[in-house]
Each structure stands twice: as structure tokens, then as C-alpha cells.
């Protein structure tokens, strides 16, 4: 990994989040980088370094709160530190299958669209969907989790994201094995 990812890892650790967060972020990053590799093999332009850094930082806001606001708070923290705007957007747009402006209003978030747009944003968002802590989830388990919470629309967005990535990457994201990342202690 290059400097941006290493800087992201160091910044996450410096935020002193709950102990589970760095383990989770490392797992998400390992899968996200594997998905970026699949994108490259399928001829897609993807910034692997931004994917790694965004995945490592995606839950930095959990050092402040454990609720849905963590994505926006993490993004705002990184904006004030003048992080790469593309990495900031990965952090801001990583929740579920995306949160549109109407949902944001209902959730008490600043009203705007938090739906992942770039390939890098969508890869990190979905890699996060496939982990609960450091436990890899099947798509069926993800569906059960969202349906049991009474969030069928969120599940629909996650499924649509999964299907879109599968088509673009020419591989089922659920079947992709994470790659090891060389991160400093």
C-alpha cells in the first residue's frame, strides 16, 4: 500500500475509536481492495489507493458516535483536515446502499444525497455491507439483518448496489476473497 492508505490507517488509529473499529475497517479495506483489483481486471479505471484509504477511514466517525451520523461526522472531520476530497466522499457515502435526501431528512441528517456515485465509493460502501465487525456476511445474512430492522428499502438499495457491482466487475462480490494489506502497527 502506498502513502495515502498508510496515512489513513494512522489517522484512524489516532482518532482512538472503539477497539472493534480498526479491525472492521481493515477487513473492509481488504475486501474493497480485492474488489478494486477485480474492477481493474475487467478493464475499469479505479483508484485502488483511494479505495484503500477510504475503506480504512470509512468509520472514523465512530470515534464520535455509534449512530448513522458517524459517516457525515467522519467526513466533516476529514474535510477540516483537508483530506483528499474523493476519500472524504467515500467516508460520507458509505452507509448501507446510500441514503437519499428524503431519507436523510427522516434520519435527522443534513438534507442531501449520500448515495455512493463513483466506483470507488460504491466498492467501499458494498465491502462495508459484507462485514459486521470483523465477521464476513453472506448476502442472505445482510438481507435478514435489514429486514429484521424493518428496513426493506435499505435492503433493496444494497441488493441493487450488489447487482450493479457484480455486472461491472464481472464477478459476484460475495464470492471475492479479501487480499492482505501491509499496514503499519
Number of separate structural domains: 1
Task: Tell me the radius of gyration.
Answer: 15 Å
Helix content: 55-70%
Average pLDDT number: 95
CATH class: Mainly Alpha
Which residues sit in consecutive blocks of at least 5 with pLDDT less than 50?
A: none
Strand content is: under 5%
Give the structural class.
mainly alpha
Distance from N terminus to C terminus (CA atoms, Å) equals: 14 Å
According to CATH, what is the topology?
Hypothetical protein af1432
- Tell me how many strands there are: 2
The CATH architecture comes to Orthogonal Bundle
Order of helices and strands: HHHHHHHEEHH
Explained architecture:
This protein has 9 helices and 2 strands; from the N terminus they run αααααααββαα. By secondary structure, the protein is mainly alpha-helical. It has one domain (3-175): Hypothetical protein af1432. A two-stranded antiparallel ribbon has the order 1-2. It is globular.
List keywords for this structure.
two-stranded antiparallel sheet, mainly alpha, globular, 185 residues, 2 strands, 59% helix, Hypothetical protein af1432, single chain
Question: What is this structure, in a nutshell?
Answer:
Helix content is 59%, strand content 2%. The chain is mainly alpha-helical. The protein has one domain (3-175): Hypothetical protein af1432 (Orthogonal Bundle), CATH 1.10.3210.
Secondary-structure topology with pairs:
Layout: H1 3-14, H2 20-41, H3 48-57, H4 70-80, H5 85-92, H6 101-107, H7 119-129, E1 131-132, E2 135-136, H8 139-148, H9 152-169
Antiparallel strand pairs: 1-2
Helix pairs in contact: 1-3, 2-3, 2-7, 3-5, 3-7, 4-5, 5-7, 7-9, 8-9
